[in-house]
Each structure stands twice: as C-alpha cells, then as structure tokens.
C-alpha cells in the first residue's frame, strides 16, 4: 500500500461545528482539529467536548484526523487529553515541545488514559510541534525519544515570537530552524511538516513557499483556509513527465533486480539505490502502488 | 442533580445551537423550550436528543432554552453537555 500523504494539513477551529462536520470534504490530506490557539480561553471546555462528540460521530472519509491539544503546562492540556485520547483520532499534536522530558510527561498521561479505557493496541500517533528556540536546540533528541512520534512540525508564528523577531515573507528568521528540524525528522524516519502561510489571499506567495519547503524535504504544510489546499497539492504533485520517468526507473529496477543486476543505466545515466528511492517517492505522490507495477511485469 | 447556576453554551452561527440553562425550584422537573430553523422537520429529534443528554447526566429541576440553527446531533449533544457542566460548576465558561 502507498504511504499516507500529508501534503496538506488544514487547521479547523475546535469550536466551529460547521467546519468540523465538513472536514472530510475539503480535499486536504489531513485536518487538524485545533483546541489550542484557535479557541478562546473561555471556550476551551466547549471546544474539547464538541471535538470529542464529533470524533464519535462524523465521517471524515479518507482524511487523516489530528487533534491539537493545549500544552501540558496550561490548565487545559490534561483536560484535553482526558476527552480526546479515548476517541483515538489518527494523531494528537503536542504543541510547544521543548525537551525529551516534555514528551515523556505527555506520553505518560496518554498511556495512563489509554490504559484506563482499556485501549490495548493504540494506533494513534503523536506529532510534536517545535515552536521555541529551546525546542529547536533540542530537536534531535526530541525526534528520537518516542516510537509513537511519527511526525514533527514547526510552528513559525510562535517560534518567531519566541525569538523576538517578525515572521517575514522570505522566512529568513526561521530558515535555520526549518533545516534543522528537517534533518532531525529525516534522521528518525519521521514526516516533517511545515508551518502555515498566513496570507490566504496571496496564492503565488503560498506556492513559492511550498516550492521552497518541498526542496528542503518537508512532507507537507499546515493550512488555515480550504482555498490553500489546491495550490499546495499542485506543488507537491509530480508532473506527468516525472511520473513517466519514475515509472520507467522502477520498472527497470525491478526487472534488473530479478535478473540479479544491482546497478544499471537508463539513457546512459547510472541508476542506483538513491535514484530508485526518489522514483518510489514520486510514485507514492502519484498514488501509484509499486506492487501494481511489479504485478504488471511478472 | 440540579443545576447550581445559569449557564450557556454554543453560538447563533449556522450549524450550531445556543443552549441556556437555569435552575428551577426543587420538584419542578424539566422544562425544555426549543426554537429552530428546522422546527417543522426536527422538533421531536431535537427534544429527544436534548433529553437523552439530560437523562445520562441525571439532570432535573432545570429550565433549558435551545435556539437551534441547524445543528447536527453531535453538536446538540456537546452544547447541552457543556451547558450542564457549566451550570453544575464542573467547568468554567461564559455566563
């Protein structure tokens, strides 16, 4: 089966029933039901009950469902976990992660609640969010400390605030953090997800930023408006030419491997393991299962 | 249980429901007043849904006013539960 794509992860305010009930039809790869920044302080209780109730009932179709809870240092973090963990959404996003101890404390509560509710083989994974300079400094250890973490993400707005700088369109202030977080994620086989692009009216700017983060190695981007889904997918989706090339590379690789040949050439260019891996990634983004290619060649 | 305070939850936005709760005298039971943009079609469903939550939470001696804007069942249940918990002083919120 092809790997789950996370090109687009759309934030939806946790206290907005109209948006939550439609979350499965926006066409994004994942929705982030937000109990943190998108919810007013005096509505935190209402939002967590609403999200829990929606998770019980609403059909999100193929869309991955992630819930961003409040940080454990706030009065809301633990209450969020008590409501949401028993529902076992696909993932929980843990904001403002600064250290390995933060992850351990968080996971201790998650595991306790799962045990209390008799959840024996939890499928729910964890996304850690790096939003402070301290978090960026510790990101290699954070990325490696917990097997249920399957994605790591950067929170650009909070990070620039923590650094005392302004988030500029060229992303200069968070460039080092982006690259460091990508390396930490890749070193631990995690998906790395980018921060939001705040100007929903600037489609060209969104595409430019998405092109850039794709080159860095990000698997996808957080979005704040359904209008941002298509432009981001456009950038992440491979072109027809790229798909044809990847198909040819993988087909030749499969045939040569069966014949016991490790390295081969296509049009005079050497094809080795990294080229094949890139081809597989392209095919995954094009929803082509390599098993189907293999079957067609057997 | 009997509500201790007046409380509300929800909004007047489309697909939401505003629920207001106030305690009434001991032995008064429940009074549920509903208005909805889909009253003709779903009045009974709304009443059933609201009463189910009140039953589960064992709430009596309450006057509940619901102003519905086409909320789905999970939203109605969530807003009633929130209003009840606020009225019992279990959670803080508005009003």
TrEMBL record, chain B:
Q: Which InterPro entries match?
A: CitD, Mal_deCO2ase/Cit_lyase_ACP
Q: Broadest EC class? A: lyase
* Assigned keywords, A-Z: Cytoplasm, Lyase, Phosphoprotein
Q: Which GO terms describe its molecular function?
A: citrate (pro-3S)-lyase activity
Any Gene Ontology CC annotation: cytoplasm
Places the protein is found: Cytoplasm
Q: What is its main location?
A: cytoplasm
Pfam families noted in UniProt: ACP (PF06857)
User: Might you give the EC number(s) for this enzyme?
Assistant: 4.1.3.6
Domain of life (superkingdom): Bacteria
Please give the name of this protein: Citrate lyase acyl carrier protein
Species this protein is from = Ancylomarina salipaludis
């Amino acid at each position: 089966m092809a790997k789950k794509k996370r090109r687009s992860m759309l934030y939806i305010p946790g206290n907005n029933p109209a948006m939550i009930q439609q979350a499965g039809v926006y066409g994004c790869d994942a929705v982030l039901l937000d109990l943190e920044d998108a919810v007013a302080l005096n509505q935190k209780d209402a939002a967590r009950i609403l999200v829990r109730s929606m998770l019980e009932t609403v059909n999100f179709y193929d869309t991955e469902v992630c819930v961003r809870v409040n940080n454990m240092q706030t009065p809301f973090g633990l209450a969020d976990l008590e409501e949401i963990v028993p529902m076992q959404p696909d993932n929980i996003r843990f904001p403002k992660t600064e250290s390995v101890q933060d992850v351990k404390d968080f996971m201790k509560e998650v595991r306790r609640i799962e045990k209390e509710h008799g959840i024996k083989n939890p499928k729910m994974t964890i996304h850690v969010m790096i939003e402070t300079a301290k978090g960026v400094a510790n990101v290699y250890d954070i990325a490696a400390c917990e097997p249920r973490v399957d994605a790591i993400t950067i929170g650009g707005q909070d990070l620039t605030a923590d650094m005392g700088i302004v988030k500029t369109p060229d992303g200069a202030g968070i460039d080092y953090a982006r690259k460091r977080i990508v390396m930490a994620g890749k070193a631990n086989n995690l998906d790395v997800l980018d921060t939001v692009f705040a100007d929903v009216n600037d489609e060209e700017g969104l595409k430019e930023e998405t092109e850039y983060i794709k080159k860095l190695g990000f698997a996808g981007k957080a979005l704040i408006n359904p209008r941002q889904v298509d432009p981001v997918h456009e950038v992440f989706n491979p072109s027809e030419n790229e798909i044809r090339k990847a198909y040819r590379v993988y087909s030749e690789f499969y045939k040569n491997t069966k014949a016991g040949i490790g390295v081969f050439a296509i049009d005079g260019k050497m094809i080795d393991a990294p080229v094949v891996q890139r081809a597989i990634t392209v095919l995954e983004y094009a929803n082509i299962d390599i098993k189907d290619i293999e079957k067609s060649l057997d | 249980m009997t509500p201790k305070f007046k409380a509300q939850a929800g909004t007047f936005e489309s697909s939401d429901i505003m629920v207001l709760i106030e305690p009434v005298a001991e032995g008064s039971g429940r009074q549920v007043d509903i208005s909805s943009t889909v009253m003709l079609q779903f009045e009974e469903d709304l009443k059933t849904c609201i009463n189910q939550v009140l039953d589960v939470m064992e709430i009596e001696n309450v006057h509940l006013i619901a102003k519905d804007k086409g909320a789905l069942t999970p939203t109605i249940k969530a807003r009633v539960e929130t209003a009840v918990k606020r009225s019992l002083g279990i959670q803080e919120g508005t009003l």
